[in-house]
Design goal:
By secondary structure, this protein is mostly helical. 75% of the residues lie in helices and 0% in strands. The longest helix has 41 residues, at 50-90.
Length: 97
């Protein structure tokens, strides 16, 4: 399955192979006790089988999506609060701002 993801053309290669490696590097650097290294880093560890790596990477992907979703939700809520504050200061409706 890993080699299949490497062989995909264009955007699918980026989404299924390159982006997960980039995200693994970022999240592992931020919280190494929670997120494992990239799949290539996991292959270098002794005593870990393919199924264990697959399970760990699935858990990592779920947690990564949860973190990114929470971040974007927070940013959206902050933007909405900012628009409300600006609208209140200038005395216009939120739709105008």
């Amino acid at each position: 399955q890993i080699s299949r993801n490497m062989d995909r053309p264009g955007k699918m290669f980026f989404v299924t192979f390159l982006l997960p490696i980039i995200l693994d590097g970022i999240f592992h650097k931020i919280a190494p006790k929670i997120f494992g290294p990239s799949m290539f880093g996991m292959f270098q560890k002794q005593g870990i089988g393919f199924k264990q790596i697959q399970r760990k990477k699935r858990l990592d992907r779920t947690l990564q999506l949860l973190c990114i979703g929470t971040l974007f939700t927070g940013m959206g809520m902050a933007a909405k609060a900012g628009v409300k504050a600006v609208a209140k200061v200038i005395g216009k409706s939120e739709g105008f701002v």
